[in-house]
Design goal:
Layout: H1 30-43, H2 51-68, E1 74-78, H3 81-92, E2 99-103, H4 109-116, E3 120-124, H5 135-144, E4 151-155, H6 164-174, E5 178-181, E6 197-200, E7 213-217, H7 220-230, H8 252-282, E8 289-290, E9 303-306, H9 312-321, H10 349-354, E10 358-361, H11 369-378
Parallel strand pairs: 2-3, 2-4, 4-5, 5-6
Antiparallel strand pairs: 1-7, 6-7, 8-9, 9-10
Helix pairs in contact: 1-8, 2-8, 3-4
The protein binds pyridoxal-5'-phosphate.
Length: about 375
């Protein structure tokens, strides 16, 4: 157990209650990495698609494929979730076109990745229920744009599963390539197809290894090209760039952590799901509703509640008075970030209504039942 700061006031003495932190990531302990690290010492291979990297690719692809009931899954590790999205867009964007549709309400990395791929984000609204862009909304945006976009970036809302078949249908109908920013959805992918699913292996995600990312696809040719792009566009053994890319590789040390995570991920998912169940129980009669399915239908690393507009100020004041950390994980929308205020966009009524009211609450494996009770009390 963690010991609280000794300067903390005693709640019985009338001081502020002990703080409840919003997030405490937990990655495998150093001891579980040791067998893998010793292998690095022996082989003296530290990066460039080494044996641990290869083992991680095979193991992770097998694990993802088994969960989705899908054979032939390929994973291409990258240096981050952001670079996974950027590479996938560079590969898939229709040449000669400028824009990439994306929901304004997302983690800001989505916008940076699109710009990194040489495209301009065109911001669109999200669906009120799923918090995600729908094919229907994308169709409406297409009609309002001066020219067709190069691609669409669909974002998984805080790790919720994305509707892969619906977006495959959209792509068939429109010819516009789709890429998924499924950064937080590594453990909720129930459909894997050729359209690349980009996930983050950042420490704060369920499948966290520290820093890293992965492109997931059943398209072998796409995977081969993406892989080449992570290492200066070299294909085969020759030191010849056949495609433009950069250095987006995952080192053997990161692969070692990846293998340690693979060994323990099922237990971590079970632990996050039991926490989700405890929260669902505690908030059963709350006017603040948990994001649909989060923490119960799939394991999430953040838990978000939707506060009714007329309760929001009171809830946030209670959190602050009760020393309970809260966060708007995605802020209020890409269009409000100074770096991105000049982007073209469609109307964003749902984003403007929803984003201020979706509040991240404390969610980690050190929370006690008493602390969950305190959070639930504040949300009444
Ligand atoms: C975490 C996250 C990213 C970025 O992933 P990194 O590995 O930190 O680069 C992108 N999009 C969304 C929706 C995320 O949650």
């Amino acid at each position: 157990m963690e010991s609280f700061d000794v300067t903390q006031a005693d709640p019985d003495a009338g001081g502020p209650p002990p703080p409840i932190e919003i997030m405490r990531p937990r990655l495998p302990a150093a001891t579980s990495m040791m067998p893998f690290l010793s292998r690095i010492d022996e082989t003296r291979i530290y990066s460039n698609y080494g044996p641990l990297w290869r083992e991680f690719c095979v193991g992770f692809a097998g694990w993802l494929g088994a969960r989705a009931g899908q054979d032939g899954v390929r994973v291409v590790p990258t240096s981050s979730g952001t670079t996974a999205i950027q590479i996938a867009l560079q590969l898939r964007a229709t040449p000669g076109r400028r824009f990439c549709l994306m929901p304004s309400w997302t983690f800001i990395a989505s916008a940076h990745a699109i710009c990194g791929a040489g495209l301009t984000p065109w911001l669109v609204d999200v669906d009120e229920e799923s918090f995600m862009l729908t094919p229907h909304q994308a169709m409406a945006a297409l009609r309002a744009m001066p020219e067709p976009p190069a691609a669409v970036l669909v974002v998984s809302a805080f790790g919720a599963p994305v509707d892969v078949p619906a977006w495959a249908e959209f792509e068939r109908e429109t010819g516009i390539p789709v890429v998924f920013d499924a950064a937080a959805a590594a453990t909720s992918l129930n459909h894997i197809g050729p359209q690349p699913l980009c996930i983050s292996l950042h420490a704060t995600k369920v499948f966290g290894i520290g820093e890293g990312g992965t492109i997931i696809t059943t398209d072998t040719a796409l995977a081969d090209k993406a892989l080449a792009m992570t290492g200066f566009g070299f294909q085969g053994t020759e030191r010849v760039s056949s495609i433009r890319g950069g250095n987006y590789r995952l080192s053997e040390y990161s692969a070692a952590m990846g293998l340690a995570v693979l060994d323990s991920i099922d237990a971590k998912i079970a632990s996050m799901l039991s926490l989700g169940a405890a929260y669902t129980d505690a908030l059963r009669n709350s006017p603040c509703r948990i994001q649909s399915g989060a923490g119960t239908a799939y394991a999430a690393m953040s838990l978000n509640v939707i506060c009714p507009a007329d309760r929001l100020d009171r809830v946030l004041a209670r959190f602050d008075a009760g020393n309970i950390q809260w966060r708007r994980w995605w802020g209020l929308g890409t269009h409000l970030h100074p770096a991105f205020t000049d982007l073209p966009r469609s109307d964003l009524p749902v984003t403007e209504d929803l984003a201020p009211r979706v509040i991240g609450v404390p969610f980690h494996d050190m929370l006690t039942a008493e602390e969950i009770g305190r959070v639930a009390d504040a949300l009444r």
